[in-house]
Amino acid sequence: MDFLKEVKYSFHVAFHPFDGFWDLKYENKGRLRIAFMILLAVTVMMIVKRQYAGYVVNFNHPLKLNSFDELKYIVLPFLLWCIANWSLTTLMDGEGKFKEIMIATGYAMLPLIVVSLPNILLSNVITLREASFYYLLDTVASIWFVWLLFVGTMTVHQYTVTKTIITMLLTLVVMGVIIFLGLLFFSLIQQMVSFVYTIYQELSLRA
């Protein structure tokens, strides 16, 4: 499968998720590089959206924007979701491998590009009264993404609808736990470094 066919297949997944994710798992048609490419494109798209969306719907101050913040809002949640979902489904008899989870999650993000690009262009020509169309398309992109993520999770792990919903909710909980433990760990490290530095200063002054 060449690169163009791989890209075309990602659109097939977006519009025919049941067939697409099934082939992704059992026909090995999904590619990790395409998932990462979509992730990168979504990150770039969100940066462009924050900076170039029309003033009617864009309330960001241009001088306060930091492109690296998108790593926190896009890339980090993506990685946390994949890690948390894999960790959880390992205990819940899930059939999905970590690579399959990453591919399915990446492919599910495609609507965020497909809808956001024309929506950014639209935001620069609409009036305040027409802003509801912009927010409507944003909502459609989010719902489409969640739907694809749901179908992808269900297909990759071979879960029922109910178990998939429970798993996705528990994955969010596990993500919160990972973030909490991560912050706690870095806080402890910071306190230890500060403590060692304080002792060093005390010894230096007494020497």
Describe this structure in words.
The chain has one domain (3-206). It has helices at residues 3-15, 17-26, 32-52, 69-91, 98-108, 111-114, 116-123, 131-157, 161-206. With 207 residues, the chain is mainly α. The termini are far apart. The protein contains nine helices and no strands.
Question: Mind sketching the topology for me?
Answer:
Blueprint: H1 3-15, H2 17-26, H3 32-52, H4 69-91, H5 98-108, H6 111-114, H7 116-123, H8 131-157, H9 161-206
Helix pairs in contact: 1-2, 2-8, 3-4, 3-5, 4-5, 4-9, 5-8, 7-8
Contiguous helical run count: 9
By oligomeric state, this entry counts as single chain
Outline type: globular
| Structural class label | mainly alpha
The structural domain count equals 1
Low-confidence runs of at least 5 consecutive residues: none
